[in-house]
Specification:
This protein is an alpha/beta fold and 238 residues long. The protein is elongated, with a radius of gyration of 26 Å. The chain contains seven helices and four strands; from the N terminus they run H-H-H-H-E-H-H-E-E-E-H.
């Protein structure tokens, strides 16, 4: 049997792959993920394909671990593009919520064949989403302080996006009486945000806090604004 490329000198990968595939069908992504860290390849899918060609195993009809989740990755990348159209950003990160059964099957197989130092399937899924999103949008990955964070829920087939906080500093001059500094918190949620206050935490916009908040809601399309006041309000002053 002729081996190819990166596998020519690694009989261990070939032997382990045969053992794994003799017990369960795996897609190229899941198979390659088990061994990609010990090669000079960056793509688990590409390595999985090389392994399969080397040992002449048929392509899995349905992957034991992911149930062909990777075949729908492009659909979720499209979701990420759609939910981010209203945002201006340069960097991002992405997380995933998978069915517990997928994670358990992955853990079981890695333990069964003593595959140590191998990325879990959730890590591989988020890497694949990130790489494809970068190719589509030319944005950059930033795991520490991203402009936006995507969360793909594979249970509900939904994609949510969350932006990092925007910090603003400013001063104001009050030129008339009857303009309070702070607004009263919503009595239903005590300022935490609920359906009765549209998640704002306040219900009136007559004071300094309310007027600034209203402007920021419209400007940034946000629901919550949090103030840190320096100094208190003098009731006897303007």
């Amino acid at each position: 049997m002729q081996k190819c490329g990166v596998l020519e000198k690694d009989d261990k990968i070939i032997l382990q792959s045969k053992s794994i595939l003799s017990e369960c069908d795996l897609c190229d992504n899941c198979l390659g993920r088990f061994f990609v860290s010990s090669t000079n390849l960056s793509s688990g899918r590409r390595l999985g394909n090389k392994i399969r060609n080397s040992i002449n195993f048929r392509i899995a009809t349905k992957c034991y671990i992911c149930k062909n989740l990777f075949s729908n990755i492009d659909l979720y990348v499209k979701m990420m593009q759609n939910v981010s159209t209203e945002y201006e950003f340069s960097t991002f990160t992405v997380g995933a919520i998978l069915k517990q059964s997928i994670i358990e099957r992955d853990d079981k197989l890695r333990s069964r064949f003593h595959l140590r130092g191998v990325d879990g399937i959730k890590t591989d899924v988020t890497k694949e989403l990130g790489k494809k999103f970068i190719r589509k949008t030319k944005k950059r990955i930033d795991h520490l302080l991203p402009d936006v964070t995507f969360t793909i829920n594979f249970k509900t087939e939904q994609c949510n996006v969350k932006t990092k906080p925007v910090f603003l500093y400013g001063r104001y001059v009050k030129d008339k009486r009857g303009l309070p500094q702070k607004e009263e918190s919503c009595r239903d949620c005590m300022g935490k945000g609920c359906i009765f206050c549209n998640n704002h935490g306040i219900v009136s916009f007559d004071g300094v806090e309310g007027k600034i908040s209203k402007f920021l809601y419209e400007k940034f399309k946000t629901e919550r604004v949090k103030f840190t006041w320096i100094g208190g309000e003098d009731k006897t002053s303007l």
